[in-house]
Specification:
Helix content: over 70%
Shape: globular
Radius of gyration: 19 Å
Mean pLDDT: 91
Bound molecules: fe (ii) ion
CATH architecture: Up-down Bundle
CATH superfamily: Alternative oxidase
Oligomer: single chain
CATH class: Mainly Alpha
Low-confidence stretches: none
Order of helices and strands: HHHHHHHHHH
Length: about 240
């Protein structure tokens, strides 16, 4: 017999808000931070990051388009999934050192937060693309991105398991690239300043006066992901 009583875990989660933007900024700050990104030099990317950007350009063109950003977001989530997975296993093996296990578990939680944030980026892009009339090819826009994401997951997992610094560096390069690409994308679309964002994820990711501000916020999230990874590159394993 069906009742309206929620299952226990569902009830415990309740109305807790899902993770949205990393740090919500005012419209003024969003503009300032976009300018800061545009004025800042890019990181000197590692060979593996350069190879990934090249493959993306070859497959999806050098032009900044929403379908290309969708692929970028699909791939962007996977290092956080890989880190969560490796660190979760490590919690088990370090449980006899509670202090260390606790720090590793905090890393698991941060990876989940970052992963969820990238997930919102992806969902927002998916929805915006859905409103576009042209169809995206199945192989180039559905199948190949999954293959790219799978390969990137394996690479991130192995790097992180051997030496987390390698994986943090690759991710910092990737996030730096994303931050700059979003800042340029907004600059290339002055018409977005007057276009309201009316997607279905405003409860989760926030209300934005314009599409331009929405993408400025996404770009700022990418900056924070980059800074987190850069900071972790400086520290020892799992800390
Ligand atoms: Fe993202
Ligand atoms: Fe990102």
């Amino acid at each position: 017999m069906e009742t309206d009583t929620p299952l226990p875990v569902t009830a415990a989660v309740g109305e807790r808000p899902p993770f949205g933007a990393m740090e919500r900024l005012s419209p003024e700050r969003l503009r300032e931070e976009q300018q800061r990104t545009l004025a800042s030099p890019r990181r000197r990317a590692s060979l593996s990051a350069k190879a990934l950007f090249k493959v993306m350009d070859l497959l999806y063109g050098e032009e900044r388009t929403l379908p290309k950003f969708r692929v970028l977001e699909l791939v962007a989530r996977v290092p956080y999934q890989a880190w969560e997975n490796v660190a979760y296993v490590a919690v088990t093996h370090t449980s006899r050192q509670p202090g260390f296990a606790r720090r590793v578990f905090d890393k698991v939680r941060i990876s989940r937060f970052e992963q969820d944030n990238e997930q919102w980026h992806l969902l927002i892009l998916e929805e915006l693309l859905h409103e576009h009339p042209e169809r995206l090819g199945f192989v180039r826009h559905r199948l190949v991105p999954q293959v790219l994401a799978f390969g990137y997951y394996q690479l991130s997992w192995v790097m992180y398991a051997i030496n987390p610094r390698w994986s943090y560096r690759l991710n910092a390069d990737f996030e730096d690239h994303a931050e700059h690409e979003y800042a340029l994308l907004v600059q290339e679309h002055p018409e977005w300043e007057d276009q309201p964002y009316e997607g279905s994820f405003t409860d989760d990711y926030g209300d934005y006066a314009s599409l331009a501000d929405l993408f400025r916020q996404v770009g700022y999230d990418e900056r924070l992901h980059k800074l987190e990874s850069e900071g972790r590159m400086e520290h020892s394993r799992f800390e």
